[in-house]
Amino acid sequence: MKKKYSYNFILIIILVIVLGFQKFRVENIEDYFSLKQSYNYKLSQLENGNLEIKNPQKYLVFYDETSEVSRKILERWKATMDFSKVKYDLQSVDSQSKINFNDYTGVVFTNEDFMGFQKINFIEIQNKVENGMSLFFLTRSYSNPFSKIAGIEKVNNFTEAKGLKFNKDIFPGFKEIVVEGEVIENSSLDLKLSQEAKVIAISKKNIPIIWEKMYGKGRVIYINGSMFESKLAEGVMKQLVAYGTEITVLPVLNSKLVHFDDLPAPIFDKHHEPIFAEYRMGTKDFFDNIWWKDMEGIALRNNLKYTTFAIMRYNDAVSKEAIKEVSKRNFESLSRQGRNIIKQGGEIGIHGYNHFSLGLIDEMDYKEYNYAPWKSIEDMKVGLSYFRKVFHEMYGEQVNKYAYVAPSNLLSKSGKKALVETFPNLKSLSGIFYAEEKEPGLLVQEVGKDPDYPNLYSLPRFSSGLFKEDKEMWSIYNSIASYGYVSHFLHPDDITDEERGRNKLWSTLKDGFESIFVAINKNFPLLKPSTQSELNYDYSKLENIQLDYELEQNNLSINIKNFCGPIQSYVRLNKKKILQIDGANYRLMQKTDDYHLYLVDLENKEIKIKVGDA
């Protein structure tokens, strides 16, 4: 009897091994044990540089608190300049006091009305510019006392100026794009310029929008428009100020990201005529056998990593009672998609249990998106908890989740509460940076911390889609000029959506998508491929630093406080170039007759750079 029992036991063991082998043959045994997604967000100990910076570069910014125009421009100035640790002081344009301008590299006006501006300050600014200070006007003014030194001979009237075209390089990528009127619209002046004024950019109908004029040893830059009230031009503002200043040091994130919303996600086998016409396949076979291989190839050729955002089901559940199990077929599909992403070097984040945005009644316009409100925060948490449970069953406990993207970019305050209480390791929310109109629940972000939960980073996306068009490229280059990073997002079903895919063949769409990054890599070959969590960490090193710098006799000194590891920075030198550097590495980004633009790795809290004439 013992032999019979032993024989049966051996058969059971063999059967278990065979079944286990079959499971691992399907799932790839190596991946099953090695899947890992874990980031150490702990920063190194903060250190302070001890270089003595006697006259740190700084700007004086005039504003008019009674003017909406001035308030909007000042808001954009603060957003982009604070990010790069630019030093500035604010001064009301109608201040009655005499101002000491000796501490300032440049003077900036955000106002169009000069009522109350003191003559003594006007005279002093003229003298300082004549002796080498820079002067910037960030909006047009019908009665600007500085019009003559800015090169304006005659002002006729106000006019509308649509579109923007650069005649001169001030930053990579800008000159190759003609921006249409629906992107950039200016309230401008119909005017006559002196011959000494050099036009940098014009409208589509050749109205001068940006120009420069030398005045003695100094430079005046004038913006004949209202575009700096908008996010869509803040990168131009930042780089114009850098262009008009002898030397600038602007820390950036220097990264490129690609987001895929709805991946991993269930793929339905349905007929889509362009896919069937090209491949004779349904959508599920196409995504399994064609689409992902093509996306891997694009990533390899263009040095990209993908950050994806998973959902478990496409259903209309908005209560805990309606939460349903993931089918075996979908479980296997989601598991395979996720392994492919991590093997590619990418990251998987959270999109949600389903594609219904997290919010309660009256928190967003649900009818517009064909959604329904969740019943309560607790119901949201049940759905998110189910997402967490299945996610760990698929990928294991070592695949952590740090990033969230909201379905349709809609996220309420109650939805944030459900997220942070369900996912304590969550580090970032990524909404959108640009929005034509505000609407309830739309997650429109500034780069920085979330206003409701400051332990979360707000790192928005700037562009989307499969088509290389000037509007999208402008958004991309403007964001690089402001913050130094690209964040572009897609949905796998963009190709089957009539509006987003335009009924084009996949061969056309994939070429369009790749051409976006071919152009980015041509103009910015030094951008590093990043996942969302890698970008989160890079921002955490940058957010609290204090940076001072000055140029003395061709010696540029940079001192950093709260330094906690290497960061990257644009360094622009007008009419000069780097000869030698201590405490950093540098690479040339762009060279023109006017300037050298470098990407510098600030690897130490104290940096010394020897510069010379170009």
End-to-end separation: 95 Å
**Poorly predicted parts:** 1-5, 21-27
Q: With helices defined by DSSP (H or I, 4 residues minimum), what is the helix count?
A: 15
Q: What fraction strand?
A: 25-35%
Describe the structure.
The chain is of the alpha/beta class and 614 residues long. It is 31% helix and 26% strand. It contains 15 helices and 29 strands. The strands form 6 sheets. The chain has a 9-stranded mixed β-sheet. Strands 13, 14, 15, 20, 21 and 22 form a 6-stranded parallel β-sheet that branches. A 4-stranded antiparallel β-sheet has the order 12-25-28-27. Helix 3 packs across helix 5 and helix 10 (377-395) crosses helix 11 (413-422). The chain is globular. The chain starts with a helix and ends with a strand. Residues 1-5 and 21-27 have low confidence and may be disordered.
Keywords:
614 residues; alpha/beta; six-stranded parallel beta sheet; 15 helices; 31% helix; 26% strand; globular; disordered N terminus
Annotate the secondary structure layout.
Blueprint: H1 2-27, H2 29-34, E1 59-63, H3 68-83, E2 88-92, E3 106-109, H4 119-130, E4 134-137, E5 152-162, E6 164-166, E7 178-179, E8 185-193, E9 198-202, E10 208-215, E11 218-223, H5 234-243, E12 247-252, E13 255-261, H6 273-279, H7 283-302, E14 306-311, H8 328-343, E15 347-352, H9 366-369, H10 377-395, E16 403-404, H11 413-422, E17 428-429, E18 448-449, E19 457-458, E20 463-464, H12 470-483, E21 485-490, H13 498-501, H14 506-523, E22 528-529, H15 532-542, E23 546-552, E24 555-561, E25 567-574, E26 576-582, E27 584-591, E28 595-602, E29 606-613
Parallel strand pairs: 1-2, 1-3, 3-4, 4-11, 13-14, 13-21, 13-22, 14-15, 16-17, 17-19, 20-21
Antiparallel strand pairs: 5-8, 6-7, 6-9, 9-10, 10-11, 12-25, 18-19, 23-24, 24-29, 25-28, 26-29, 27-28
Helix pairs in contact: 3-5, 5-12, 7-14, 10-11
